[in-house]
């Protein structure tokens, strides 16, 4: 659940070993709860290269107004990129008026926004929301627009398929991530700790966190998120590593599955981090920004989030040296196990309340720089601007395009030209194992699991199985029992 980012973003063209299950969920973060980090505009296709330019009949001559997601004020670089994109789009489509909206998608607000007809024509969301938005009628069916898109076969299926619901397309992939662990190498060295191998285990994480922690100085070994949906999202990675699942879908029913032996094992690990190792912050009620910020500021040795979020915050906000920011896959529960991490991503959705003309223009805007030289030029300009400002560009690990495509290779060549592009360790990347979140009510599940995490962190000796059973009963009766799977 990462923090949502903007339309554009670069990809690290490394070979990812991903074991993904196909469909997608309703998840959370930067999360996911899903919010993510910033990235440049290599996102839609350029004026001259736009494969899906509107037909000559004539969206180009109709006066159309669309509202779009616009980055928040704390992201000036991204706002500059979006402003440049708007300018270039209007050079091709001077008949289109673009209204900027800085509304951040919130599953608790989308219903009100739609009911009041206040949702943007094009808004951003996270991977977990596909089924939810489609079933609520809050995402336009853009199947025809997508099928007519020249580059549809070059879209990254690992991401794009997450918004393919019952054979129809309801969203446009932007970028993605597999949850990882950031490790502060300098803090390890200060304690005489050798960084563990990238093929690490829960025991390695526990021992490393215990070794780094210095509670008297307010330093934690690891800062798992402890409030908001983020807490449930963070913990779910360990559920997956233990071999568990959030839910099962069979015979037309959705059934809670996280109160399994795997769920107990995963929560017992959290119990050890708190009560055995004393390795988490004394004030453990940290949201996404709190935990990632603590990592960037050197107040914790490890944090769990999207890889680019961790590295970008630590290097560009915290002033850490790139070589001191180690991005690890999530640890395996035991030696030889999978390094499972949540596979999430950011998507753009077209408002179903918009007119057909508005929906078409919104789709063209979303894909305006995709697969284009303009997109690459914008990416390179972003890297150059960061270099001028003494900052690093941190690529996303997954983007809308296939990383082995011709366009992916061009992006890789751009990255290779600059020494201020953060490089992920190839051995770590090879171990990444992405697992999609659940398809139904994932945000509700995350919120419910946050209560369990808080119970475990606040009370020594908490009956984990009882807590998980109660949580499973809650999501089952409040949410899953009402679902009828076709």
Automatic annotation (TrEMBL):
Xref: SUPFAM superfamilies: Periplasmic binding protein-like II
InterPro entries per the UniProt record, alphabetical: Bact_solute-bd_prot1, SBP
Residue spans of biased composition, Low complexity class: 31-58
Top-level taxonomic group: Bacteria
Keywords per UniProt: Signal
Annotated segments matching region Disordered: 24-58
PROSITE patterns: PROKAR_LIPOPROTEIN
Keyword Amino-acid biosynthesis among UniProt keywords: no
One protein family per Pfam: SBP_bac_1
Signal peptide span: 1-20
The name this protein goes by in its record: Extracellular solute-binding protein
Record organism: Cohnella nanjingensis
């Amino acid at each position: 659940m990462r923090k949502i980012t903007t339309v554009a973003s670069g990809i690290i063209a490394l070979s990812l070993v991903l074991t993904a299950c196909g469909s997608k969920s309703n998840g959370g973060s930067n999360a996911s709860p899903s919010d993510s980090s910033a990235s440049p505009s290599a996102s839609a296709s350029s004026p001259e290269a736009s494969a899906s330019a509107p037909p000559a009949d004539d969206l180009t001559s109709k006066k159309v107004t669309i509202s779009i997601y616009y980055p928040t004020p704390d992201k000036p670089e991204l706002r500059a990129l979006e402003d440049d994109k708007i300018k270039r789009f209007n050079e091709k489509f001077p008949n289109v008026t673009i209204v900027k909206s800085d509304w951040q998608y919130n599953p608790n607000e989308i219903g009100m926004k739609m009911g009041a007809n206040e949702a943007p024509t094009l808004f951003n969301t996270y991977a977990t929301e596909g089924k939810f938005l489609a079933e609520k009628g809050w995402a336009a069916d853009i199947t025809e627009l997508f099928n007519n898109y020249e580059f549809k076969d070059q879209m990254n299926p690992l991401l794009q398929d997450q918004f393919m619901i019952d054979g129809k397309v309801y969203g446009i992939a932007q970028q993605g991530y597999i949850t990882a662990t950031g490790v502060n190498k300098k803090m390890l060295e200060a304690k005489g700790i050798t960084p563990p191998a990238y093929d690490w285990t829960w025991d390695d994480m526990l021992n490393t966190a215990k070794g780094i922690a210095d509670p008297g100085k307010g330093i934690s070994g690891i800062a798992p998120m402890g409030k908001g949906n983020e807490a449930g999202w963070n913990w779910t990675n360990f559920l997956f590593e233990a071999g568990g699942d959030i839910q099962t879908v069979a015979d037309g029913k959705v059934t809670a599955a996280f109160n399994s032996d795997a769920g107990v094992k995963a929560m017992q690990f959290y119990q050890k981090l708190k009560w055995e190792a004393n390795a988490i912050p004394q004030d453990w009620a940290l949201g996404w920004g709190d935990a990632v910020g603590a990592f960037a500021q050197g107040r914790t040795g490890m944090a769990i989030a999207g890889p680019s979020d961790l590295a970008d915050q630590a290097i560009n906000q915290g002033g850490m040296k790139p070589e001191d920011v180690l991005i690890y896959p999530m640890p395996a529960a035991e030696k030889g196990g999978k390094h499972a991490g949540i596979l999430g991503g950011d998507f753009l959705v077209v408002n179903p309340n918009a007119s057909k003309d508005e929906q078409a223009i919104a789709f063209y805007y979303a894909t305006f720089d995709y697969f284009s030289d303009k997109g690459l030029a914008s990416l390179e300009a972003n890297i150059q601007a960061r270099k001028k400002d003494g900052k690093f560009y941190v690529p996303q690990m997954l983007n809308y395009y296939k990383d082995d495509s011709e366009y992916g290779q061009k992006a890789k060549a751009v990255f290779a030209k600059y020494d201020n592009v953060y490089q992920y360790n190839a051995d770590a990347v090879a171990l990444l194992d992405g697992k999609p979140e659940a398809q139904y009510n994932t945000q509700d599940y995350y919120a419910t699991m946050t209560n369990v995490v808080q119970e475990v962190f606040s009370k020594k000796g908490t009956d984990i199985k009882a807590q998980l059973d109660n949580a499973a009963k809650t999501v089952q009766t409040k949410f899953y029992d009402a679902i009828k799977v076709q």
